[in-house]
Write a structure and sequence with these properties.
The protein is of the alpha+beta class and about 425 residues long. Helices cover about 35% and strands about 35% of the residues. It has three domains: about 180 residues, Beta Barrel (Elongation Factor Tu (Ef-tu), domain 3); about 60 residues, OB fold (Dihydrolipoamide Acetyltransferase, E2P) (Beta Barrel), CATH 2.40.50.100; about 120 residues. The longest helix is centred in the first third of the chain and has 62 residues. The mean pLDDT is about 85.
Amino acid sequence: MDKELAPEVISRNRHRNLLIGVGIVAALLLAIGWMRTALKTSVEASKIRTATAETGPVENSITASGEVIPAYEQVYTSPIRASIRRVLLTPGTAVKPGQAILDLDKSLTEIEREKLNDQLALKRNGIDQLRMKLNKSLYDAEVNDQIKLLNINRLRADLEGAKRLHKVGGNTTEDVTRADNALRVAELEKKQLENDLAYNRQSMSASLRETTLQAQIEEKNLKELTHKLNQANIVADRPGVLTWVNENIGTSVNEGEMLAKLADLASFRVEGSCSDVYADQVKIGLPVAVKVNETSLRGLITQVKPAVKNGIVQFVVQLDNSHHTSLRPNMKVDVFVITDRVTRAVRVANGPAFKGKRKQFVYVLPKGTPVAQRREIETGLSNFDYVEVKQGLRVGEQVILTDLSQYEHLEEITIDPKPL
């Protein structure tokens, strides 16, 4: 026969069972809350960014970096060996044509010019002396030739007289032979003198021509030095802005050493650089988009540097609007080299949702409903601004650009409205 339990035991068991039940219910509530958090299917509207699919051109581009530089920058170098006497203008100064930039001490070169001038005067004096000497020598030779001719005429007459006397028995055959030989000797001497005279004429003319050429060389050296002295007046020949000046007064500068740089800040170009991975794609003539702050400027690649340095390819961009007010020298800009283009495509603004894959999932937000639906799309060309969507989207549909990869296992996501 069972023994009846005491009321205290029954009460204690009842309280224990109640506490266990409350604990189980609390654990279930906590588990449900955790599951709801883990399997959350909604996103606040304030945390997402959307874009509408539209029709328009899409360009495929290579991202590069660039630097704005003046369209031209003239370099002034020292044409002579001199020293800097005065700096008349400082960097950043706007310069007009004819305005002096630097004053050089040209005294050493001026002394050298005077020396060359004296050497040229000596050469010219030597030419005059040589010409007088040549004229005297030619005159003496011509007089001797005339004397020889007169002597020959006399000997010819003597020979005729000897022959006449020989006919009448007035002299011997030896006398005729002697007179004939004397005439022949005189005639040979005259030929020799004429040959010497012709040689002297040619030799003297060659000597005069050589001395004249030496004088002409000295004259050209003097003209060259005079031209360098005129160039040593460092004067701007076009308008611009000084970007650099050698301001070390008293410093000696050698011929060809840089003194100043003058840039035209009215027009600019861009020097771009990108990884050599794209070396085979970067070509002369390709269109380029340059991002200057919020402005996009267009241009063309006009030069690709042949050398690759440290894995970098460098190129030069000629801008269509090289006078744009946003351009500043040495400004860093983003450069997009356009390698392909589709004139009419379904496009969406680029954003974190696009991972660069050809096929991927995005969330589309239908009109009039707060539920975003997952959809697979196929992308095409892309650039900094837009992504081409070949399949999976229609014009006018809204696409969430925010990265929702943590919800990619869900077919739908609820977009919670913004709190009031």
